[in-house]
């Protein structure tokens, strides 16, 4: 069975990717320091506890498991934190990625799937963002991800390393079968925060900013179901294993929802009110981020089948009814 090293494999997206890889006939090897991930989420292959800042640990994992590809999710990803402490994001995200890419090349692994972000585009007045849209990140998180994309292009030009880059939009939902789901500490994503407020686990959902130039004054985001997202990663892996070249793909639906529209959808799904408080804008937040994902559909055959707002909230709500990971 071909193995794939999945960095961040104990995290939200990484654990779903491990399940998708296992279902596709691969053996996922989760490489994670468990700083934000959960050992209980590693259910579909072995766990290697290691840190991307430790080059020797990466080398050892690659030597032991000899994967056909690396799938890189592990990163710091809080926009607000990246605005307050940019050095941390440049050190960990880019430094860790450099260690990983160098080790991948040294181990003779030729295929690399990278989890990038729409934050590399910055704030561009709500235009539909395609892969050819200029990248103008407005925070250190987006800047660090763009730098890793540049690393992959440079290494690919110098060594036999092929890559697929996925720039994705707001990921939501949970495994429909309830085996893995979203749990961060602290939680920062809109839908789980909203559902915690609905369930009485927090006093209220804070809406950050109501004076944006949008239809109701709140930010607009394009949401994609996590299971659709990781399906694209498996397709991207097969793209590389089939010998196709380096490529960048956006992953979204092309439909944007305001924060208030997400709240209204939650009321319809849960049949409960969402307690809300109003807050000011957060530094680094773009007004609107909407994906143009035609390339992924046309070239990979990807279809975001579960990425309706009702389905994403419904699957996330079902996950919250289960016992959480230990913590």
**Classification by helices and strands:** alpha/beta
SSE run: EHEEHEHHEEHEEHEEHEEHEEHH
CATH superfamily of the largest domain: NAD(P)-binding Rossmann-like Domain
* Biggest β-sheet strands, sense, barrel: 7 strands, parallel
- Rounded mean pLDDT is 95
- The order of strands across the largest sheet is 3-2-1-4-5-7-11
Number of strands: 14
Radius of gyration: 19 Å
Low-pLDDT runs? none
Helix count equals 10
According to CATH, the fold-level topology of the largest domain is Rossmann fold
Overall morphology:
globular
Distance between the termini: 33 Å
CATH architecture of the largest domain: 3-Layer(aba) Sandwich
**Beta-sheet strand percentage?**
15-25%
The helix fraction, in percent, is 25-40%
Number of domains: 2
Given this structure, which CATH class of the largest domain is correct?
Alpha Beta
Structure notes:
This protein has a seven-stranded parallel beta sheet, with helices on both faces. Strands 6, 8, 10, 12 and 14 form a five-stranded mixed beta sheet that branches. A two-stranded parallel ribbon has the order 9-13. The longest helix is centred in the N-terminal third of the chain and has 21 residues, at 86-106. The protein contains ten helices and 14 strands. The radius of gyration is 19 Å and the shape is globular. Helix content is 38%, strand content 19%. It has 327 residues and is of the alpha/beta class. α1 links the parallel β1 and β2. The protein has two domains: 3-172 and 223-251, 3-Layer(aba) Sandwich (Rossmann fold); 190-221 and 254-320, UDP-galactose 4-epimerase, domain 1 (Alpha-Beta Complex).
């Amino acid at each position: 069975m071909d193995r794939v090293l999945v960095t961040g494999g104990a995290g939200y997206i990484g654990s779903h990717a491990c399940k998708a890889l296992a279902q596709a006939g691969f053996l996922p090897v989760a490489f994670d320091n468990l700083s934000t991930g959960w050992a209980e989420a590693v259910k579909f292959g072995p766990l290697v506890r290691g840190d991307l800042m430790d080059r020797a640990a990466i080398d050892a994992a690659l030597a032991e498991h000899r994967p056909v590809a690396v799938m890189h999710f592990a990163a710091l990803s809080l926009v607000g934190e990246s605005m307050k402490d940019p050095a941390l994001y440049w050190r960990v995200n880019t430094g860790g990625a450099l260690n990983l890419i160098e080790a991948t090349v040294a181990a003779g692994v030729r295929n690399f799937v990278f989890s990038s972000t729409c934050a590399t585009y910055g704030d561009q007045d709500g235009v539909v963002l395609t892969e050819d849209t200029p990248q103008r990140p407005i925070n250190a998180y987006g800047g660090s991800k763009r730098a890793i994309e540049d690393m992959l292009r440079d290494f690919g030009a110098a060594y036999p390393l092929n890559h697929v880059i996925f720039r994705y939009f707001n990921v939501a939902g949970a495994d429909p079968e309830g085996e893995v789901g979203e749990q961060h500490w602290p939680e920062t994503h809109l839908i789980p925060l909203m559902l915690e407020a609905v369930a009485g686990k927090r006093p209220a959902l804070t809406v950050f900013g109501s004076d944006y130039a949008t239809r109701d004054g709140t930010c607009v985001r394009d949401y994609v179901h996590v299971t659709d997202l990781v399906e694209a990663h498996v397709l991207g892996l097969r793209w590389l294993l089939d010998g196709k070249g380096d490529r960048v793909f956006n992953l979204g639906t092309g439909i944007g929802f305001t924060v208030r529209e997400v709240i209204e959808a939650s009321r319809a799904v849960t049949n409960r009110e969402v307690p809300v408080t109003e807050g000011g804008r957060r530094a680094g937040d773009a007004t609107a981020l909407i994906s143009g994902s035609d390339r992924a559909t046309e070239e990979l055959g990807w279809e975001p089948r579960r990425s309706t707002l009702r389905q994403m909230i419904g699957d996330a709500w079902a996950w919250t009814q289960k016992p959480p990971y230990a913590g």
